[in-house]
Design a protein that fits this description.
The structure holds two protein chains of two kinds. Helix content of chain A is 6%, strand content 40%. By secondary structure, chain A is mainly beta. In chain A, strand 1 and strand 2 (38-39) form a beta hairpin. Chain B has a nine-stranded mixed sheet, with helices on both faces. Chain B starts with 9 loop residues before the first strand and ends with a strand. Classes of the chains: A mainly beta, B alpha/beta.
């Protein structure tokens, strides 16, 4: 049987700056050049003021867990069956935005402080949060 | 321009389903859909020529397109609409059909839904579009809060993140699937009829994702439904006791109000947690009732915790209290507010919510047999993401 490959995101000109930042093991987000709001997910405009202008800036990578689960049986893409049990959750960054993302520890709970780390897998680098 | 009055202007006059629902039926979607259509025509006492509008829940996978149906069933429509088969468009189809009738664009609309699955007839139809949902890989993730690159690639896994936000025990969660399983024992069409479920059996089943066990997930199956709507004026002369479309409300979609199987305020998606203050839902204003007047509630139960989201969004209980509110038999037949008396997606069949619409019509006609809610006057369809239809007997 062919080795299962992790399903990769569709990286294209509109979102590549985000995935390139992870590749360089840094977490960078768009910040609105007009009102300063950090943007996540990637967007052509600021969701607060509709400005097009933005700069990519590094963020701390520190945050806290909002909700966390362990997946014991993966029923979607077959790759994930090779990884069970694994943890996924929602992390709110110190800078405000929150993201649904991999967790590097099955025991993380809502409220746990976490730090970003970077997982190289094939041509893509994924974000993961682990206990501080 | 004053808003058009659509309350009690349109009625459900016919219901029909495929002869059965089953995990695998080995019938093409078009065959299942025509079965349901003919059953609904017979129920309504109408002919094919009476139906001039067609509204389709298309997909799951390779469903039936409006033109395929017209060609193969020999119909002639002057109004058609085709939405995606997901439950997020179930109320929308009823709304669009109601509006079309009120506006004179159609006189009589058949709302058709056909579900097949990849292990059933879907295995022959891969070229027509099956291949799993692409939503989890959007930059904004999936509509249920999925994040494909991180293995949160199914609605169930994503919804278990919602359920995890509550301080609920497994016993609390179990109350929902156990209630619907009981109802299914009284429904001859239910897949889970004859397979009762005890709390111990529920607890003995291992967690699969977050707090969810097998019984917290909906069924996968094949089957079709047809709901026929026409004007209230015409309905009075037809064979069946009319069931009125009395209140309508669209789904909400906003940055802080759209994770499909959640409600606002829980800190899911991209919006940090906030105190959710439920406001009176517009569907009740149109219907001229309140949640306390609902005799039976029907909701999109792809996962057990969806009921918590509906109960809190629509004001049946306070935010954060639904997991207790659903306990103690309140949601069972004979309880204060029977929910999903057909057995729902968890125990009847997954028909994108259209199976619930069939049941609403049966209940309000007083034809639900052993599972009849006594003197049912008002039945509500509602989803965690906020769309709704109120149906009434008069």
């Amino acid at each position: 049987m062919a080795e299962a490959v992790r399903p990769a995101p569709a990286i294209h000109p509109e979102n590549e700056a985000f995935w390139h930042s992870l590749r360089e093991h840094q977490l960078r987000l768009q910040f609105c050049s007009d009102c300063g709001t950090p943007r996540f997910p990637v967007s052509p405009v600021c969701f607060k003021c509709l400005s097009d202008a933005a700069e990519w800036k590094p963020v701390s990578g520190r945050g806290r867990v909002v909700s966390a689960i362990t997946i014991h049986r993966a029923t979607g893409n077959a790759f994930w069956s090779t990884r069970t049990p694994f943890a996924v959750g929602i992390v709110q960054l110190q800078e405000g935005p929150q993201m649904t993302v991999g967790l590097g520890d099955n025991d993380l709970k809502a409220g746990s402080p976490v730090q970003a780390r970077f997982v190289d897998e094939g041509d893509v680098t994924y974000l993961e949060f682990a206990p501080i | 321009m004053a808003a058009m009055n659509v309350s009690r202007q349109v009625c459900a006059v016919g219901i029909g389903t495929s002869a059965e629902f089953a995990p695998v039926l080995d019938k093409a979607p078009i065959r299942l859909q025509i079965e349901a259509f003919k059953a609904a025509l017979a129920d309504a006492g109408l002919t094919r020529e009476d139906v001039d509008g067609y509204a389709s829940a298309n997909g799951s996978p390779g469903g039936v397109d409006f033109d395929e149906f017209a060609i193969q069933a020999g119909c002639g429509f002057q109004w058609v609409v085709q939405n995606w088969s997901h439950g997020r468009w179930t109320a929308t189809l009823v709304q669009q059909a109601t509006l079309a009738i009120c506006a004179g664009l159609a006189n009589c609309v058949a709302i058709l839904q056909t579900t097949t699955n990849g292990k059933g007839y879907g295995r022959f139809l891969r070229r027509l579009g099956e291949g799993g949902s692409k939503e989890p890989f959007r930059d904004v993730g999936g509509g249920h809060g999925e994040a494909g690159p991180y293995g949160l690639d199914t609605p169930g896994a994503a919804t278990s993140l919602v359920a995890q936000r509550y301080g609920a025990t497994s016993e609390h969660l179990a109350a929902v699937p156990l209630a619907f399983r009981k109802h299914a024992q009284l429904n001859p069409m239910a897949l889970m009829r004859g397979r009762s479920l005890t709390l111990q059996e529920y607890l003995d089943s291992p967690p699969l994702s977050g707090p969810f066990r097998l019984f917290d997930y909906c069924l996968r199956n094949e089957g079709a439904t047809c709901l026929i709507l026409t004007s209230a004026e015409r309905a009075r002369d037809l064979k069946q006791k009319p069931v009125y479309v009395t209140g309508l409300q669209s789904m909400n979609s906003a940055r802080d109000d759209f994770v499909l199987f959640s409600r606002p305020g829980l800190g899911l998606g991209f919006t940090p947690e906030f105190d959710y203050a439920p406001k009176r839902q517009r569907v009740y204003d149109m219907a001229g009732i309140g949640p306390e007047d609902v005799d039976a509630l029907y909701m999109y139960d792809s996962f057990s915790s969806n009921l918590w989201m509906v109960a809190e969004r629509f004001g049946f209980c306070k935010p954060g209290e639904a997991f207790e509110w659903t306990s103690g038999g309140r949601i069972e037949l004979g309880g204060e507010l029977p929910v999903n008396t057909n057995g729902g997606l968890l125990s009847e069949a997954h028909l994108s919510g259209h199976g619930h619409l069939m049941e609403i019509v049966r209940q309000l006609r007083g034809e639900a047999g052993q599972r009849q809610v006594p003197n049912a006057e008002v039945a509500q369809w509602a989803t965690p993401w906020g769309d709704s239809v109120v149906f009434t007997r008069s």
